[in-house]
Every structure is written in structure tokens, then in C-alpha cells.
Amino acid sequence: MSKLFNTGRFARVSIAVMNALHRFPTPLPGPRSHWLGFDYLQQAKADYLSHISALQSRYGDVVNCQVVNETIIDVHHPDLIRQLLVDNAEALVRWERAIAVFGNIHGQSVLVTEGETWKRQRRMLQPGFSGKRMQSYCALMADATAQAMASLPQRESFDIAFHTFAHQLTMDVILKTLFSRSEVAMRDRAIGAVATLSRVGMAEMFWPMSAPDWMPHKSAKRRAKRLLDDIVRTNIKLRRQRSLSNSASETDVLAMLLSVRDEAGDGAGLTDEEIRDQCMTIFLAGHETSALALAWWAWLMAQHPEAMQKAQDEIDQVLEGRGAHYDDLEQLSYVTATLKEALRMYPPAPALITRRTTREIALGEWQIPKGAMVRITPWIVHRDARWFREPLRFQPERFAPGAKLLNRNSFLPFGTGSRACIGGHFAMTEMTLIAATLLQQFSFRTDASPQPKLDVLLYPVGGLPLTLTRRECAL
């Protein structure tokens, strides 16, 4: 017995047992596949968010589903998400189906590219979204917002389809910050084109391949792509034709795209085709996300008049009746908190952060095989009671200055890691400016109870009707 429990021998046996167990990692939990997994695809397509929520409730933070020969793994724990997207970033590429669908529309933008091409674009574009640049963009945002506010009915109280208004306003902001110009006809055509391409993109995402764009049933997609392409290329051409002295005075995003150089590389700038692709992504990824975030935020504020009043008190104190400027936004901490809480409850991009593993990786107690499709669904994480107490309750104080999240990795409306949304600061600046301007002049009221629906982004079924009432201090 003394030989059996010899310390050195026991240690060697323990190590051998542990090594043996490592060769047999914890099995990945998940449902059994029926009909080669096509039943799973049908359920996901019918109601993706409810389906993924049900799987997480039953199987936990890592869920494995098999569809034909495709291994699909959903990851729901914030720490595992960080381990995946940050610690193992070099072992991941974007899901090729999403890249094919987005690339067909966006071109080879920073949203789509991989490897050295992506690194080059990212390092060239990142300074263009810094605080210094944002100050000049904010002035253009303020102009577009003021024009939109002037277009509202000049009555004390009126009903509005706020979802539609938010789309018009954020498209005005995109056009103004991109090109320093916005026209109603251009704006409305662009909104229709973006909506068409979003709808088509969601439909194509659940098929292994897309029909060629030249086929008759793709006529709406062709028109939408052509319209946005014409807007972008026309503005690039007009800007190129201006004299150097005039173009140097421009402070918009297009001026930034035309002027950036790869200082860490060959010193070259972006080609017109690369500029076109970045502009398309700003149209398609930057417009609707902000519009939907503002729409859900306005509805939540209408549902919680005490929070709305607190935000208005802060706005009145900081702005003292004048328009908001970039330097004011940092002081509007409660307004920002209401926006972040809206982004938590109704993230505009609630799903489809999807990666493909290029090698086997360890994730917690599990081994993720090479070639697996790994997905993150912010909607699930944001509504998990482990990280947000009473997750269905609107509580902006979660994001107040000095407050700490229960898990710092649990809030990811713009993603996380090296491929986090490059325009996250741009979007928060835009939304805070618009929210402050709206609440400075109006109070919101509604009886609507819209249901969220995933269609690439999170849309309110039936829209978001609100009643806007002018505040006495704004009369």
C-alpha cells in the first residue's frame, strides 16, 4: 500500500490520467440532429431569436447543432465570447456565406475583407473615426438634425410614424456626413434601396448559394444596388473634379476617405473602387442600425416617462436652450445611459456575429474543431439575468457613470475584439446628438406594443407610432 500511494508515483499517475482525459474533451452539448438538421434550419428561419433562446435555456452556454456536414456552435457566455473573439482572433475568419452575401452588395469594404487587405483598410480608416474627426462630423450631424426637426409639423402635439422619421433623419445624417449634402429625393431613394437590399440579404443568408443577380426575380435587387452605386460614384467624381483648395476645406467622411494614406505600409491612398465600397458599407451598415436604435429608444422613453423627464432635466441643465455641440455630449451622461440601455434591450444587430475556425481551439472546457461555424447572439447575452438583473426592465442606471456591469464583457451592441464595429463611436455620437435634440423640444407618448422581428436587423413589427408633444420650454 505504501508503494501504491508513494507521492512521486501518485503524481505521475495523476498526470497520466489528466493527459488521457484531455484526449477525450467534454462533449459539446446540443440537440440531436433530425432530417440532417434541415428541421433546425426551418425553425431558425421562422424565428431565429426565439429558437436560439430555447436552445440556450435547455443546453447552456455552448450549444452544438449539426446541419448535414456543418458543425454550428452557439456561444452565450460573455467570458467565452471574449476568449473566442479576442484571445483566438487569429484562428477565426468571417463566415463565408455572410461574406458572399455582403460582398455582393458592399464590395470589398472593411466589413467584408480578411487578412492583410482588412488590416490595411482598418489601420487607414481608424484615425478617420477619432475624436478629432468626430467633432467636424458632429457639426454636419447637427445641421442634418436641425433640418429634420424643422420639417416636423408646427403643432403643439401630433402623431408620427417614428420608425419612418428615424430612417429619414439618419439617412439625412449619413448623406450629410458622407458628402456634405442631402436632398429629399436622394434621401428617399436611398432609404428604399437600403431596405430592399436588407430584405434580400436576410433571405439569401439561409441558403447555401444565391441565384445570379441577372435572373428576372432579382430585378429589385439590381435596381437598389445600381441606385446606391450611382449616388456614391457621382459624389466621388464630383469631389475629384473640385480644385485642391476647395476639397481641402471639406470635413466630411468622403474627404477623409480621399485623403487617408497607408503610412505604415506603402503610403498609398484608397482607390476610387475602395472608396466606393467603404461608402456602400456606411450606407448599408450605418444608416438602418442607428435608425432602429433610435426608434426602440424613443419607444422605451415613451414607456418610461420618469426616465424621459430625468433625461430632459439633464439636457436643459447642460444646453440651456441652445443646440448641442460635440463638447456637450460627454456631459449628457444620463441621455447616453438611456441609449445604451435601449441598445442592450433591443440591439439593432441582435445576431449573426459568425466566425469560422481555421484550427482547433480551446474554449472553456470544450474543444472547438477546425472548420466549425461559431455564432454569437448579443440578444441572448443582453437579456441574461446572470449579467443584467431583471433584464426585461428598462434601467438606464446600469450604464450611469461609475456603475459597473456584473460582467464587463456582457454588453456588445457593436461586437468586440479586433473586428468590433469601426463606426461605434460615430453611431453613439450621432444618436446622442439626435436624442438630446429631440428631447429638448418634445416629450413622447405611445400605446403601441411592437413585437421585434429579426430581418438581418431588429425591426418593430407594425412600426412605432408615437405622439410628440412640444415642451413649454421649446415653444
Task: Write structural notes for this entry.
The protein has helices at about 5-20, 40-45, 50-60, 80-85, 95-105, 115-125, 130-150, 160-180, 185-205, 220-240, 245, 255-260, 270-305, 305-320, 325-330, 335-345, 380, 425-440; strands at about 60-65, 70-75, 90-95, 155-160, 355, 360-365, 365-370, 375, 440-445, 450-455, 455-460, 465-470. The protein contains 18 helices and 12 strands. The protein is globular. The protein is α+β, with helices and mostly antiparallel strands.
Helical amount: 40-55%
Estimate the global geometry from the Cα principal axes. globular
Query: Taking strands numbered 1, 2, ... along the chain, how are they ordered across the largest sheet?
Result: 1-2-8-5-3
Largest sheet: 5 strands, mixed
How many helix segments?
18
Distance between the termini: 92 Å
Which ranges are low-confidence, i.e. pLDDT below 50, for 5 or more consecutive residues? 1-5, 13-22
Helix-strand pattern? HHHEEHEHHHEHHHHHHHHHEEEEHHEEEE
Assign the structural class, choosing from mainly alpha, mainly beta, alpha/beta, alpha+beta, or little secondary structure.
Answer: alpha+beta
Overall pLDDT score: 88
How many β-strand runs?
Answer: 12
Rg calc: 25 Å
Strand fraction equals 5-15%
List the helices and strands and how they pair.
Blueprint: H1 7-22, H2 38-46, H3 48-59, E1 62-67, E2 70-75, H4 78-87, E3 92-94, H5 96-106, H6 115-125, H7 131-150, E4 157-161, H8 162-179, H9 184-205, H10 219-241, H11 244-247, H12 253-259, H13 272-303, H14 305-319, H15 326-329, H16 333-345, E5 353-357, E6 361-363, E7 366-368, E8 373-376, H17 378-382, H18 424-441, E9 442-445, E10 452-455, E11 457-460, E12 465-470
Parallel strand pairs: 2-8
Antiparallel strand pairs: 1-2, 3-5, 4-12, 5-8, 6-7, 9-12, 10-11
Helix pairs in contact: 2-3, 5-9, 7-8, 7-18, 8-9, 8-13, 9-10, 10-13, 13-16, 13-18, 14-16
